[in-house]
Amino acid sequence: MSASVKFYNTHSIFVKTGLATEEQLNQSVAALKSIVIKNFPEYKDNLGILVNYVLAKGVSVGYSYLWIDSTEIFYMLTGFNPDGTDRFEEEKPSEDIEELSNFENLSFEKIIEIYNSKPRLMRALPPLLSIPAYIYTEEQKSKVIEQLIEAKRTETGLEDPDISDENTDYGFFVCVRSSITNDRIKPGSDRCKLYGEVKEWVTEKMLMNNFGRFNTSEFKDATGKPKYPQITIMDHTNPERKRLGLKKVFIQFFNTGSSSYDATFALQMNRKCKFTKIEKVGGKDTVVETVEHVFDYFRSAAAGNTSPTGSPPKIQRSNEFLTRNSDTGFATRAAGSSDDKFTTVRRR
Question: Among 11, 260, 290, 331, which residue's beta carbon has the most beta carbons within 10 A?
Fold first, then answer.
């Protein structure tokens, strides 16, 4: 069996969220947007951020994923300079250099040669950007205090340890580069091609809104638009799936180089997608149906393709009007909408 190999890109971030709720993470990411606009205005026009708040059986698992459209913002969040170079500061030698004690008798070139020959300490600089902290709720604060007391008891052996110097007010987010491994892809699966089933009213544009951002290939079509992903929607041949109003969808990503893992990163962020059908009711845009569809790798003919859900899609009907929270910049993505800057998805 071949060894597991990790792959990275310049968009996907793993975030340790701790006790943070989905709402707290969303608010902090929205605050991050404001910080970028204020402190790094040169990147304000590329602020697309997708948040995947990870749940297991409805409960937070303490980590999430972010997809950052801007490579510069990605680098700054993960501890690099905007161009991807390391952020280190050279510290001066901690001790006097004996050979330079009589530097008056040395040439300038010799002084530089001796100075540069000594070992240097490189100190890592803090990230240029970080996701702003969130304020603990009373429930979160109680849980943090319990954890701190238990940790102090283990460390000191005291029954009632002092935790007055510990932080019990704010929660912090830790960002690192997200990776995927080659062993995540099952035999018979095409790592560059996704498959799913969607309701017949779901359009190519809606699918592109969900998956287009994960393309890292620079290939363009004849019109100058990105060539990938290539989306194909087909009628279903299965009578039962057809009766449910479902169509088959194939999403092809580029299959060479680092871009050959675009589909895998897409699944990491967007395995479950919500689509919203909007119709005019009384002259107003009204959400009439919301469906949730699951996508997975396309499997070869020998392996066979079945519905990734294994069951009919979840359908929610609503008469509520579509609204947008202009304060945070978060909204449910409307059908066919190109306003896709800040979107939240759940992965269960």
Answer: 11
**Which pTM value belongs to this model?**
0.75
| Separation CA 196–CA 209 (nearest Å) | 15
Q: Which CATH number describes the domain made up of 185-322? A: 3.30.70.330
Task: Look at the block and give the residue holding tokens 């069951």.
Answer: 311
* CB 185 within 8 Å of CB 264: yes
pLDDT digits (tens, 9 = 90+) for 316-329: 333 222 222 222 33
Q: How far is CA 308 from CA 13, 203, 249, 297, 311, in A?
A: 25, 19, 11, 9, 8
**Which amino acid is it at 49?**
I
> Could you tell me the residue ranges of all domains in the chain?
6-85+126-177, 90-123, 185-322
Tens of pLDDT, residues 168-203? 899 999 999 998 887 777 778 888 999 999 999 999
Query: Which amino acid belongs to residue 37?
Result: I
Quick count: other Cβ atoms within 10 Å of Cβ 175?
A: 20
Q: Name, in order, each residue with C-beta under 8 angstroms of 266's C-beta and a sequence gap of 6 or more.
A: 194, 211, 214, 251, 253, 295
